[in-house]
Design goal:
By secondary structure, the chain is an alpha/beta fold. The protein contains 20 helices and 33 strands. Bound molecules: flavin-adenine dinucleotide and S-adenosylmethionine (SAM).
């Protein structure tokens, strides 16, 4: 019988602790070596403290859990609003008629049922990473208990991945009220709430504890969210309200995904002993047994996967085997925002990264704008592009908070999107009619727009309060200033080849610039590599223009988006932009493009200009470069296939029992790309860096499989193969 798996790539040996054997033999979950309180039913922090805290709340206080109207449908079609009450100082859901955690002591219950039930923390000994997946994030108590235990008992360099699905995410204020019941978790609660992505549907990644803990929140129904999850799970916390009250979580559809994401040695623990759950988990390959439950609960279930269930590989053409590389060493070609984001996300994981840049300094091409806007792209109906953009935007806010806490190079001044035409007004109305939270976007009247911007805009529109502008040069410098990153400027790469063990980046004389098992192309407009030539790129030239502050009646307080956009900056000239010339591959500054930007401003915002514009006097070119765009306006991020091998293998991939051949020749080992960021690289490339680092390290992905596939480098080839034209 397999043992519960220790963390992936572990050097420790679980069996040596012997605890699993005693559990197998019918005893309680292991007690040895546990932190104080784990599995021992410690008394909660003083009841008097609980009472004091909640005296202000009546015992039946209704908390509105989201800012979205009650029972509103979200873009993904599920309902997020859920009212919770506090009964006996315990959060309770009237809708599900169940408590979030034990009335006796929620924290002790989390430690007994989920930590000890999965033989934690013993399994962390010697591990380098460990993945826990949970159904029902709820108040996050299980997560906080696990994080606390991890920070005390896991190796300092190990990384915890905690993935949790939640259909009704709570507002931060509600989390705070729930966590206040457990003062010992106070600092962790504060850090979690500071990174909290709100109630937006979709996947959201939070990097906590300086990177030691990665939380992936999957907001959506368990069956749908788990179907979208790409991860190898070491243990499961099954915590989705009682099966009799919430069959939506404990059915074959959901538990099949639990099985799919497991592997021999994966464990689970749950508070329930319902026969249906037992049978279903057994059918998924788990050896299931009862063990004493927490407090007044007589029993609970635990189990270990003996054999992974036979699952058909989904979309094997996108499958990239998680690789074990001989060294954690990578080459990144290109020091624009895409390249340094990948480099930084790998460096933060302990990788050694060499960034090769052809210019004398970084960010000299598309990423060289003196200022750039970051804001989400909303569409009138839910779309992949929007979902990707929203998740990227939420991740970026978290990323900037950590990287630039003093806002030295970014401003969250808000972006005002004006509706100057009937068509735009209709678009704004349709966006505003969708159940999106006000912190993300809300409609404004003409008067409100004037008040927000302190400028005479004169048009209604949409306001994105958390969006703003950034100085890419300083951002990029902060990103590559990392002890694990070596930036080599003046290092133009002409070719790249694999010598059987590693990638070599070669200069124009065929001299090896650097060798590493992983190579990432992040070279912006230069994608004429033999490995990338077949990819669908469209170059788009853009130019932005400095506007002397003296030309305007007032410096606006926020970014104004009209037909183009105006960035206020903080002193010095403002920035107007940008032109958009599709199909052009050469970036040459053109006075006509500056005039175009100025005319756009004059036409859209006549009330803003102090005097008739004189392009020759107070206007100059700020930036001119080529953006690379793709066929579906999504970037290309992921492993690079060999197109001929993929085409040859494709017919076999259609077979029911397809398994990739040994060595996975369709995907050359260690070859990746991050490109085609179009006009939105500054908003979207941070999550791209996290995605690529997760792929390279074989970690849970920070976004849904369908989005990873929509941004996959092979997507257009696969589409052609499906149509029979590839
Ligand atoms: C005028 C303009 C305005 C923009 N405004 C915004 C905005 O407001 N908000 C926003 O989100 N986005 C904006 N964008 C888009 C954004 O700038 C891009 O999406 C982003 O910069 C792309 O980054 P990248 O790293 O892929 O490419 P790049 O920044 O071009 O980086 C590629 C790097 O690779 C290097 N390189 C290439 N070939 C080689 C080689 N052979 N060897 C070594 N190094 C090599 C290049 O020198 C370069 O440094 C704007 C773009 C333009 C042109
Ligand atoms: C018992 S609570 C979880 C408690 C949580 N683990 C904690 O630490 O606070 C059950 C959770 O499951 C969520 N839930 C209920 N049905 C769900 C579904 N179909 N998919 C995902 N989550 C669901 C509820 O919203 C609730 O937050």
């Amino acid at each position: 019988m397999p043992q519960p798996a220790a963390g992936s790539m572990t050097s420790g040996n679980w069996t040596a602790t012997g605890s699993w054997h005693c559990w197998q033999a019918g005893g309680n979950p292991p007690r040895t070596g546990l932190p104080p309180g784990v599995n021992s039913g410690t008394v909660p922090a003083s009841p008097a403290e609980h009472t004091r805290h909640f005296r202000t709340l009546t015992s039946r206080l209704w908390l509105q859990s989201t800012g979205i109207p009650t029972r509103a449908k979200t873009p993904l079609g599920h309902r997020t609003s859920l009212k919770i009450e506090f009964i006996d100082n315990t959060p309770y859901s009237p809708q599900y008629r169940d408590v979030y955690f034990s009335r006796e002591d929620g924290l002790a219950e989390a430690r007994h049922v989920f930590l000890a039930g999965n033989c934690l923390p013993e399994r962390w000994a010697g591990c380098s990473s460990f993945t826990i997946a949970e159904i029902g994030f709820g108040t996050g108590l299980n997560f906080l208990a696990t994080w606390q235990c991890w920070s005390r008992y896991a190796p300092a360099s190990a990384r915890l991945h905690f993935v949790s699905v939640e259909k009704h995410p709570l507002e931060s204020a509600t989390l705070k009220a729930c966590h206040a019941l457990f003062p010992e978790l106070g600092s962790l609660s504060r850090e979690l709430r500071a990174a909290w992505p709100g109630t937006l549907p979709g996947f959201h990644r939070c990097i906590l504890d300086g990177g030691r803990v990665t939380l992936t929140l999957c907001h959506g129904d368990a069956a749908d969210a788990l179907r979208e999850l790409v991860a190898g799970v070491d243990c499961w916390y099954l915590d989705g309200f009682a099966p009799a009250r919430n069959p939506g979580v404990w059915n074959e559809r959901v538990l099949r995904e639990v099985g799919r994401l497991g592997r021999p040695g994966t464990t689970f623990a749950t508070f329930t002993v319902a026969g249906r759950v037992r049978r279903e988990l057994t059918a998924q390959g788990f050896h299931v047994r009862k063990t004493p439950g927490f407090g007044s609960k007589r029993e609970m279930l635990v189990g270990v996967m003996e054999a992974a269930p036979a699952c058909r590989l989904r979309e094997p053409w996108f499958r990239t085997l998680s690789m074990q590389f001989p060294a954690r060493d990578a080459i990144v070609v290109g020091a624009g925002i895409a390249g340094v984001q990948v480099a930084r996300h790998l460096a933060d994981r302990g990788w050694s990264v060499t960034v090769l840049e052809r210019h004398g300094k970084p960010s000299m091409e598309a990423s060289g704008s003196p200022m750039a806007v970051f804001s989400p792209l909303l569409t009138t109906r839910p779309s992949r592009e929007e979902q990707y953009s929203l998740q990227s935007f939420v991740y970026l806010l978290h990323h900037l908070k950590a990287l630039d806490p003093d806002r030295m190079f970014h401003r969250r001044c808000g972006v005002l999107e004006l509706s100057m035409t009937d068509e735009r007004r209709q678009r704004a109305e349709r966006v505003a009619s969708r159940p999106l939270p006000a912190w993300l976007v809300h409609p404004v009247t003409g008067e409100q727009a004037n008040a927000i911007s302190s400028a005479e805009c004169g048009f209604p529109g949409l306001f994105y309060p958390e969006a703003g502008w950034i100085r890419p040069g300083q951002w990029i410098q902060r990103l590559h200033s990392h002890p694990n990153i070596t930036l080599r400027t003046g290092s133009a790469v002409y070719d790249a080849g694999h010598d059987g063990t590693a990638w070599q980046a070669l200069d124009g004389n065929g001299k090896v610039l650097h060798t590493a098992p992983v190579l990432v192309f992040a070279s912006g407009r230069s994608m004429d590599w033999r490995q990338t030539r077949w990819l669908p790129f469209t170059p788009v030239v853009g130019q932005s223009t400095f506007i002397d502050a003296g030309m305007l009646r007032v410096r606006p307080d926020c970014v104004i988006r009209h037909h183009g956009h105006l960035l206020p900056g903080n002193g010095g000239p403002l920035l107007a932009g940008s032109t958009y010339q599709r199909g052009h591959g050469k970036a040459v500054a053109d006075p006509a493009a500056d005039a175009e930007n100025l005319t756009g401003l004059e036409t859209s915002l006549p009330g803003l200009l102090a005097e008739p514009a004189d392009a020759g006097r107070a206007v100059s070119t700020a930036h001119c470069a080529v953006r690379m765009s793709s066929e579906n306006r999504l970037p290309l991020v992921g492993a690079l296939p060999d197109p001929e091998r993929l085409s040859a293998e494709y017919p076999r991939m259609l077979g029911r029992n397809y398994r990739p051949p040994a060595g996975n020749p369709v995907y050359p080992p260690g070859l990746y790309i991050s490109a085609a960021w179009g006009s939105r690289g500054m908003t979207n490339a941070a999550l791209g860096g996290e995605l690529l680092a997760s792929l390279i390290c074989g970690e849970p992905l920070p976004l849904q499989a369908s989005l990873a596939h929509a941004t996959h480098p092979a997507r257009s080839l696969v589409r052609a193969l499906k149509r029979g034209t590839g």
